[in-house]
């Protein structure tokens, strides 16, 4: 239905057509001057708690300039379930009318405006309704009315109820940045073929169900790990750098409208145990998005505090902290500039009953019936290749988790951390079960650095961890009641296109001749990574290459690059492919692989690393509800599938304080 034409609406329509926000956006989810958050086309789990924010924008200048920059403060909003009369938001959710908020922000309309440093200024009037929920499945229409006749409409869908817990436990493995292409390459490195037949396979190759998820953000087709993790954990897409919220335009990065995550739901409804394990620093996007609610993923100190205490500045559901929390990132725990308000977060966790481990020996000895924190180094954990093959690279590090000078010693790997987390969660979850997220983080981090071998080593470590997890669950007698999902949050444009003869390449002097070392099609040969080199045994067992440094190596590349030098084959030292030159732009790093050939980049000249790619990513599933994971769907559906399998779609405000004891407890009659 077309709105009645009036002068204001016509003028607005004309000015809006001048803007088609792409590189920069006024507010990604808000193409009109009235914004509804959550925006149009969003889905909700029944009973999932969320905040609503309305914003009315009055651009003061720029191509959208409107109403002399004075926002409508008398805007109204309604919500209607299909077939029902609209009610005001306050009436519908039985809340008091919140106070009006006002602020100003600015943005660039395009790259020309940025070059000229002429931002457009926008004044805003807003209201936020905190902590509401929709319990009845169906379609809802939210209408924001402003500027005397203008309307912004959002259609929301509440998914079907899912009250029955079909899986007692969920273990969600995330290979950060992991694509099918990388999985294929890792299999070639770690597993042997005879005449084209694999003699062994990856653990994930044996999963019964495979699906495909689309990773787009709510307002861009490219994603980062914050908002993609958030989509996987909450069923709500977000914006780059944001998690657990829909990004608003206010200056406060913590006041954005929140959405409840899977561990918050699981804790509130069933009282289950939960944990996160990562080879990244634990405040990094993928682990921290389980509890993080922020528009700025780099608010690390605040995010660690949120993991332990919940969001303290706004009334919000909280988890009482993780039961098992293992990774890197001592910077946010050692009292100092990296921790919130300089506090000692080791002590904060210990105060709440956590055991604190700084190395593998202490981790393995930590009691299983106590909440467990394990922070094993500063920054990210060194990658599998450096922990197992090029161990001399660890000695020069200054990453002791206590804050003392010198390298972190006695590091656990992803497998050690994951198996210990299962022990703790199994014990602490008891009848109520558990949720564990385990992340192979440096698949992504090393792909960013174009270090394919380090990335694939960590992919094989993730697969080895999946294999050991299945064996462990079997031993504990809980494999049948545990849903295991292995997926990624996004991809990188990596693939293999042949081999490279490293000996021939090294003997050539110029760049073009070096490229002739690459063998394509019939010259690609077979994997030499699975053939042991005489006199060399890494002792890293099956599932990993027997030779990381064969003469014939994989030739691989990325869909998008900074300028860099390519010399296929493993580097003994971690890689920095490009760096900032004297003019402030990024060029080939002179000391990186000097014997390689130059590949000029395709990325903007301020990017020193590779970037994420558009590709859909695989979803492997095994266990209860596995059949729901086949097909092609959005990243948010991974949340709805897991949440439905856990019985988290409830028709009323259900908290453990109602007296329900969760799994195995009183029957839910609703
Ligand atoms: C808008 O006004 C601000 C000053 O308030 C100015 O800095 C900016 O350049 C103006 N932008 C445009 C697009 O005119
Ligand atoms: C659900 O109940 C809890 C505890 O009584 C309360 O704090 C919370 O605000 C309620 N949530 C909603 C959406 O009403
Ligand atoms: C709470 O809000 C205050 C003021 O807005 C801010 O200084 C503080 O850092 C916030 N705390 C957290 C944990 O977000
Ligand atoms: C491991 O940590 C414990 C303290 O939790 C310490 O006593 C021990 O020396 C550490 N081991 C190594 C190898 O650093
Ligand atoms: C890469 O680009 C530089 C200019 O930035 C040019 O001088 C050089 O020839 C190019 N190299 C290749 C291999 O294309
Ligand atoms: Zn990344």
- Major sheet characteristics: 10 strands, mixed
Ligands, deduplicated: 2-acetamido-2-deoxy-beta-D-glucopyranose, zinc ion
**How far do the termini sit from each other?**
39 Å
Strand content: 15-25%
Would you identify the CATH architecture of the largest domain?
A: 3-Layer(aba) Sandwich
Structural class estimated from helices and strands: alpha/beta
Strand line-up of the largest beta sheet: 16-17-15-14-18-10-19-29-13-30
Q: Indicate the CATH topology of the largest domain.
A: Alkaline Phosphatase, subunit A
Report on the architecture of this protein.
The chain has 18 helices and 30 strands. 51% of the residues are buried. The longest helix is centred in the last third of the chain and has 25 residues. The chain has three domains: 154 residues, Immunoglobulin-like, CATH 2.60.40; 358 residues, Alkaline Phosphatase, subunit A, CATH 3.40.720.10; 103 residues, no CATH class. Strands 16-17-15-14-18-10-19-29-13-30 form a ten-stranded mixed beta sheet, sandwiched between helices. A five-stranded mixed beta sheet has the order 2-9-8-4-5. The chain is globular. A hairpin with a 3-residue loop joins strand 8 and strand 9.
Defining traits:
Alkaline Phosphatase, subunit A; globular; five-stranded mixed β-sheet; 670 residues; single chain; binds 2-acetamido-2-deoxy-beta-D-glucopyranose; Immunoglobulin-like; alpha/beta; 3 domains; 23% helix; ten-stranded mixed β-sheet; binds zinc ion
Brief characterization of the structure:
The active site is at residue 225. The chain has 18 helices and 30 strands.
